[in-house]
UniProtKB/TrEMBL annotation:
Record's GO cellular component terms: SCF ubiquitin ligase complex
CDD domains per record: F-box_FBXO15
Gene source species: Urocynchramus pylzowi
Cited PROSITE patterns: FBOX
SMART domains listed in its UniProt record: FBOX (SM00256)
Protein name as it appears in the record: FBX15 protein
Domain of life: Eukaryota
Amino acid sequence: SMPSEMLLKIFSYLDAVSLLAVGCVNKRFYELANDNGIWLKLYSSSLHPKWTIWKMKSKQTEAVSLGCAALHDKKPGYWKKEYIFKQTSAFKTRVMRLVKFLDPYTGLPCKNKEAMKVSGLSWIIVLKDKNGKEHVVEKPNLSFKDTSVTVLWHGTDWPCLDILSTLKLFGVTPLLPDQSIPPNKNGPRRFSLIAEYHLANLTENSVAVGADELVQLFSLSPGLLVGIWKEKNEIAFVMANLHYNQLLERSILGSATAQYTPPPNKPLLDDVDSEYGLHDYSLHLDLHGRNCMYLCGSFKCLFCRKRDIENGYLRLRVVNLKDNRKHLPIIGTFGICWETDVFKGNVKDCFVMDLTLLDETGKPFWCFSAPVPMELSTKSSGLYDYMGHIYTAEYADSEGKVCVEFVWLEETKEYIIVSLVLYVSTEKVNSWYGTNY
């Protein structure tokens, strides 16, 4: 029963976040909270005092006064949209400025953690069932590595797997971030779609990673690990492995319905020789189990000759079976740790691989973070230096394949990497350089 003029007067004392919140109360509050007079005042207060003109979305720039023309000539909510657009643009610019500085060791932004903290970034998953109902899962546990972050969600009220259709992974940031106060979970937020996964027939359409007494692990590309309870067909936890390459862009610059698309690579005129092949590539490789590191290694001067191009792949041999000087020992025994509110465990004979392949100019060429299973090979070790069982691990996506061979030394209780080969798709190389292999 309160007159609209009185409500508008009250709303005029609110900040932007409170206005957005009060607009969710009902239809009348929404219309009043869109008042151009209130938002124009907020917009003008956010500008530099010396500014006398307002930059509009159109190509033309027109002078705007704070009088009636700026209010009545615009549709309700116009200045609200202008204010939000200005604030989010400034926010994105501030965050992306932090990731311009690259680590010469990995070729990735060296201030990822600082940028994530400044942005108030978090990640959530949205499970959608076959009836269209959505279930939002928040409160993840984070584990940071040199080149990736592992995000783990678990709970007690997961929907039954049989009724689920899709899982969406979002980056979430405050719609109107304020550096002076921590982000409010209940405040307005912006969603950026990172990946979408189809859960129908999960056990058939995914890669089985391993199992322990309680759960079975299944991998979905890119980088998602789903733990299923053995005794009932329900999700125990979901683990996302996010590589730092373009992580902030995908978590901030996308929309709620469309993923962020990175700009195409601009190659140098003489940075590839189709007769010689690839040259001067670098690899940074991490193998870990979420909470523990098994291997952290860097490899320089990788190359591929033209004769090494076969079946649509260019081969980069990193560790040679016959060159024992480059064989790599593994710290500890492989396994992926998981936990829920009540239970925790460790699925053996699998690990998370973080791969960062840099081209000859130091740009990230092929990057991923994904769970990888191991398998016992039928062949025995033919190496004089190592007598033990051989295990293989393989990973493949649209950009390439990775093949690794390990030897298990029973006496010292350790694995040794005796072979590591990368197979890069010719389609990836052609799109990167604009060539035709």
